[in-house]
Amino acid sequence: MTDTEARVALVTGGSRGIGLAIARHLAEAGHTVAVTYRSTPPDEAVALGLHAVKCDVTVPDDVEAAFAEVEEKLGPIHIVVCNAGITRDGLVLRMGEDDFSDVINANLTSGYRVAKRSVKSMMKDRWGRIIFIGSVVGLAGQAGQANYAASKAGLVGLSRSLAREFASRNITVNVVAPGPIETDMIAALGEERAAAFAELVPLGRVGSTDEVAATVNFLSSELAGYITGAIIPVDGGLGMGS
Question: Domains in the chain and their CATH numbers?
Answer without folding.
Answer: 8-180+209-232 (3.40.50.720)
